[in-house]
């Protein structure tokens, strides 16, 4: 009894000290994650808005440009897709360079170079110059998406990562929601200073990327210890947490990581989804115009509708995935919903009904894609992780080339966009099947470990 009575106060004192330490750590965690979100995510999302808009604004320009330069569906489809050839070939080298020199310098270089090329699209005069500038744009932008995804993995703990990637991915719907009406308005500058509307569109939408690129160089820190807006306690906690999570991952060589069966299958899954995303995105303005839009400005606003829906669903799905710690169903189910939407869009003859179905298709695929990127980011550590992200994007973006080309071929031979929607639906079902087969039981993020894939 005497021993018990002597230990009681000491035990309570130690327990109280542990609880106080846990509370302090929790406070540091909350404050650190909050300030990292506030400082990094708006800039990262803005970067993707500029990137995606410069990548796909050719779809809006085509409403005038195809007529001016006598481009048929196959010429436009090939030029839209040819962007992905250099983009694909140089993805892995680009992200490996970033792993060595740092994100601040490399991402700034990517943005400035693609902004210059995007503006130079105003000088297109025929198929040859069209193809050449699209190739240069793909080369300039190579490594951007996996580079930012790798950067996010270096700043956000795993339980916060899906939401962070989703906010980055919101750049796609935001780019279209803002860019579609703006592109329509810019086309209205037709004739100003003897330039066509599509030329104004290219030059004025390319310049912001150059400006943002310089901002990235000055505002984007490479590592938590470089961030002047974090206290020493916050940066130490964040780097320790990321190091602990990294220790649970596979520390493999780059070569082994790139040939891992899971890496290759996830690349195929991503490619099938991208086949649908870019097949729709590049051609959507022309699809809207074909079903009766009366002006370029109206076309821009109508084109934004599916992406407005996508933006809302992407954030909601990713936030719920982080909250529950579950990844598998938050990828597979939205993919299947997206496939159903695309199939319905192909079967419905009413313009408004087809647009509603297309909105469901886009929302499903983009919502799944945001959570999808948490899987490869959690498989490997260090340079191997960077290489895996690059390879998945590399192989996957073959779908980005095939999608627009397939739409152009079908449109040229069948004079209809309907049949290709069924191809998009089938491709997205393949994506869902692969992810469903690879991922195991839902991850409980109490253990803070990577989800098994």
UniProtKB/TrEMBL annotation:
**UniProt-listed InterPro entries:** MFS, MFS_dom, MFS_trans_sf
Q: What is this protein called?
A: Nitrate/nitrite transporter NarK
The source's superkingdom equals Bacteria
What is the scientific name of the source organism?
Paraburkholderia phenazinium
Has the keyword Transmembrane been applied to this entry? yes
Annotated Major facilitator superfamily (MFS) profile domain residues: 40-444
Which ranges of the sequence are coiled-coil? none
Q: Which Gene Ontology cellular component terms are annotated?
A: membrane
Kindly give the PROSITE patterns that the UniProt entry links to this protein: MFS (PS50850)
**One Pfam family of this protein, by short name?**
MFS_1
Q: Where in the cell is it found?
A: Membrane
Indicate the transmembrane segments per the record: 40-63, 75-97, 106-125, 131-153, 165-186, 198-220, 264-285, 297-317, 329-348, 354-375, 387-409, 421-441
Q: Which GO terms describe its molecular function?
A: transmembrane transporter activity
Keywords, ordered alphabetically: Membrane, Transmembrane, Transmembrane helix, Transport
Q: Where is the signal peptide?
A: none
Concerning SUPFAM superfamilies, the annotation shows: MFS general substrate transporter
Q: What is the topology of this protein in the membrane according to its UniProt annotation?
A: Multi-pass membrane protein
Q: Does the keyword Transmembrane helix apply?
A: yes
